[in-house]
Amino acid sequence: MGVIGSAVIGRAQLLAQLQEPREWDVVVIGGGATGLGIALDAASRGFRTALIEARDFASGTSSRSTKLIHGGVRYLAQGNLKLVREALYERALLLSNAPTLVRPLKFIVPCYRPFEREVMRIGLGIYDALAGKQGIGDTHWLSRSETIEQLPGVRRDGLQGGVAYWDAQFDDARLAIALMRTAVRLGAVAINYVEADRIEKTGGRVSAIFAHDVQTDERFELRAKVIFNATGVWADEMRRRADHSAAALIATSRGSHIVLPATFLPGSAGMMIPRTGDGRVLFAIPWHDRVMVGTTDVAANGASWEPQASDDEVEFILDTARGYLQSALSTRDVVATFAGLRPLFSPRAAHASKATKKISREHAIVIEHANLVTVIGGKWTTYRKMACDALDQAALLGLLPARPCTTAAMTLDVDDQIEATCRAAESSALARRDDDQLVKFVELAARHEQALTAGDVIARRLRVESLDRAAAARITPLVSAALAVQSIDA
Ligand SMILES: Cc1cc2nc3c(=O)[nH]c(=O)nc-3n(C[C@H](O)[C@H](O)[C@H](O)COP(=O)(O)OP(=O)(O)OC[C@H]3O[C@@H](n4cnc5c(N)ncnc54)[C@H](O)[C@@H]3O)c2cc1C
After folding, report:
1. Residue 466: its pLDDT value, please?
2. What is the value of pTM for the model shown?
3. For residues 180 and 36, what is the distance between their CA atoms, to the nearest angstrom?
């Protein structure tokens, strides 16, 4: 193996730093997009920062998204132009700051009804115009034959033509690792498998967070000027550890995807279905030599570590896709499914609570017990803006000194050699060949990316679990054995 440019991240050193009896400026609970964004922002402003994640980085909602960095066509339809413009600005920053993990993707909306093409062309033209100079490519008409040529899997019967527009696709779990790596390089202690258990309050403010190492049960007591609660759908549960009577701020909804063989939508363009039976937008997107189709939006019963797509959701997605795909599609074609939980912020509940809060349409920053700052909602695309707002808000309340946010022009740490090995390992795992590539990658993931379990490698450092469940089961023993060798070496 060649020399890897980026540093090894040693768990023992991170744990030792967590054990030091000092006051942190910032402690972040939760290592998804929100928490990692906050830790990176805080470290880059020069604050002494620690982040603890109960499981693996991005193992919650942040590895289960539709994997789009986008302005949100949905918000456009709602007339929320400010929100769309803000997200399109963030899209441009991400394309520039993490070009290996975020890439432009052409989408085509196939049109079957009279005037559908005209309406879509106007709407998506506005979407494009809102990006201004940061637009990725032109929105334009496609004739029937151009639509079929560029979207070969599309249903032909009744097809009138299409509209093409551009957005961006990314690898959510790998972007989370890039955020973690960048935060650590900037001096943060960001560690997985350390769970926050208890919140201690003294004189009306949070004086300590008690946590433990999930693997060894080593105990930690963390003191900080400000504590950011970035636990997504677990945010209310965490708030109740400080005040067991705290009113709920969030409701939970599940979004599921199915994964199909690439033959259902060959080519490089994604497909956008503008209106499903329940009034949502559905995407069919090329993803690692497969096609992922989603998402749904159904009420879920609270938080869950491993949410699953229900049979009804799979059937709903299949049914909608059948209207737009040329090939016959059955449940047997589904090679994998995955589901994520949205923390839906309820402003009414927040207004009713006594907390100080800054609420935008998309995300909310709620301050309780003087220095417990809960950050919820938003989307992956705007994680940087949310972090920036959260740190600014903490400064405004005098919890931290005011220092400017510098993340807009910050290149994220993505190691091209690790990414290349990752791609090679994944291709060979999916094609059931060459286990050497996989072993090589496991070593890198353990040393440079804090992968501790087979699931960390298979579900998030690689994406095999959400691409092909059978392939994931096949490589699990090998990955576990390769990780065991790494822990002996360490
Ligand atoms: C189906 C779906 C599709 C989506 N698609 C897109 C998309 O295409 N583009 C986009 O921009 N956005 C998308 N989103 C939104 C985006 O994924 C979320 O906004 C984002 O991932 C939320 O991140 P988070 O960090 O707030 O939550 P999470 O990722 O859930 O992170 C919270 C973390 O807190 C940890 N935690 C919980 N309790 C504790 C504890 N006691 N101690 C320590 N850690 C703890 C959890 O393990 C978890 O890792 C989608 C969301 C869903 C549900």
Report:
1. 92
2. 0.96
3. 6
